[in-house]
């Protein structure tokens, strides 16, 4: 049995951590919150309300890629939460990993802002959402390992759609 990773991706506020944890539970997979893999400097920068740049993200993406590599090589299945906003970030995570699937939690800016305003205790501030959408490179058809899941429904419906799409992808692989 080969291990695999499911990267739950999207802008801050789309529900990655909540939905990723529920997907992991449904699939009996390990759950890794990518926020826990940020270097200290990144967390401090975000707490100050400063958006991360590509240089800040590079060591974090390496940690995400290494976590996926570890899961694959231990024949484990895991769900990793990571914004993976740019294609180059997704490519970095793919590099050296054979079994990675991305679940893109897709929602419009007004919905994301509404959800972020309801959150408490998260280091990403609502005004920083503009930088997230500015950085987002929506996956296109060339990225065949990305499943696009709308977040317009309530969380349990979104999880159900994601799990169903993952099972369908697995059946056709």
Number of strands: 5
In which order are the strands of the major sheet placed?
A: 2-3-1-4-5
Distance between the termini: 14 Å
- Please give the radius of gyration in angstroms: 15 Å
Main sheet makeup:
5 strands, parallel
Poorly predicted residue ranges: none
**CATH topology call:** Rossmann fold
| Overall domain count | 1
Kindly state the mean pLDDT as a whole number? Answer: 90
Question: What is the helix fraction of residues, given as a range?
Answer: 40-55%
CATH class identity: Alpha Beta
Number of helices: 7
CATH superfamily: P-loop containing nucleotide triphosphate hydrolases
Under the CATH scheme, the architecture is 3-Layer(aba) Sandwich
The shape is globular
* Overall SS class: alpha/beta
Q: Give the DSSP E fraction (strand runs of 2 or more residues).
A: 15-25%
Helix-strand pattern: EHEHHEHEHHEH
Keywords: ATP-binding, Gluconate utilization, Kinase, Nucleotide-binding, Transferase
Pfam families: SKI
GO molecular function: ATP binding; gluconokinase activity
Protein name: Gluconokinase
């Amino acid at each position: 049995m080969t291990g695999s990773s499911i990267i739950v991706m999207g802008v801050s506020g789309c529900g990655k951590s909540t939905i990723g944890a529920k997907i992991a539970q449904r699939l009996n997979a390990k759950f890794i919150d990518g926020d826990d893999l940020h270097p200290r400097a990144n967390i401090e920068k975000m707490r100050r309300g400063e958006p991360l740049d590509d240089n800040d993200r590079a060591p974090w993406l390496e940690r995400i890629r290494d976590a996926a590599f570890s899961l694959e090589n231990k024949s484990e299945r895991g769900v990793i939460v990571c914004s993976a906003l740019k294609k180059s970030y997704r490519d970095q995570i793919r590099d050296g990993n054979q079994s990675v699937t991305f679940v893109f939690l897709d929602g419009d800016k007004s919905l994301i802002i509404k959800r972020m305003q309801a959150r408490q205790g998260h280091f990403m501030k609502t005004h920083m959402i503009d930088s997230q959408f500015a950085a987002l490179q929506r996956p296109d058809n060339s990225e065949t390992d990305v499943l696009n899941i709308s977040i317009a429904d309530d969380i349990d419906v979104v999880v159900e759609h994601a799990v169903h799409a993952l099972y369908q992808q697995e059946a056709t692989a």
